[in-house]
Write a structure and sequence with these properties.
protein-tyrosine sulfotransferase activity; 5-stranded parallel β-sheet; TPST-like; Rossmann fold; transferase; Sulfotransferase
Amino acid sequence: MTSKLPIIMIGTQRSGSNLLRLILNEISIIAAPHPPHIIQRLMPLLFTYGDLSVSKNFKQLVNDTCQLIKLNPVPWERIKFDRNNILSRCMENTLVAVFSSVYDIYAEAWDAKIWCCKSLANVHYFPQINAYLPNAKYLYLYRDGRDVAVSFKEAVVGQKHFFHIAQQWRKDQHAALKIKKQLRGEQFFSLSYEDLINSPELSLYNLCGFLELEFSPTMLDFYNSREASNTSSSSTLWSNVSKPIIKKNSNKFLSKATKEEVKIFESVAGDVLDSLGYERNQTNMGEFRTFSQEEIAQFDLQNEKAKAQVRDMIDVKDKKRREQQLSLLEAIKSRCSLIDSKTY
């Protein structure tokens, strides 16, 4: 299915995944590009291609995947995709086959034996990925969800209200922990963001053991790399990756979130905080609360207002880079509309 060993990073964004990606990228035999989120973005649009066993349809999917990579905010260097090469590598006409093939090609361009995809939303596509890549290793990176919520509130992407962020965070962690139960021990590794930043050498030593690689202190020089520079300059989302690990960058919610925000988060996702070993701050262990339709409607309004405010502040160049990928996805959706209109 693939000539390389795949590492599939899973979890929730704003949990240090770009930091860990860049650290892994410092290992010469690992290629870890910035992800164009191939599966997350194209899997929901597969219906627009029709029957993928039809050569024309599958070639269109391959071409769109290449375009999505080409428009990625952080470029994939050293590589120019040959569509026929990708097609010849696919053992079946599926999106995961295309995904695997382009990552294999990228790894070969960097003389790497392992590739890492840090598109954390792949946590929700495990059945499809596992069916094609049964020997892949899964790296579950998690962070205190309340700090994730604080980070999302300040980010140019994602939800902004603690209620919505808690819902997604809870869903993502449950999915990751479910995968853990389905895999062999040598295929699944859990790492908390807090351990990574506070005990980086020990955390990476253990991770390298899982990957059957030798730990090198030079992994912690990631911030000097060209890839870190490219990533940092592409968006304010990733500005910190051009700096050394910021230790004690945890429990930010204690000073940056209101008590009510923390209480809402714990009321929604407290069970996962409990299971991952995070101490509650505003509720008791085991406590859970449902919210009324009126309360949720109010949360929705506040969330949309906050997202609109963030969109107004986004850097012009960053916005343009993101809009290029979004335009491609809209064009793919519009093809289906054209087909439907012709049908009628």
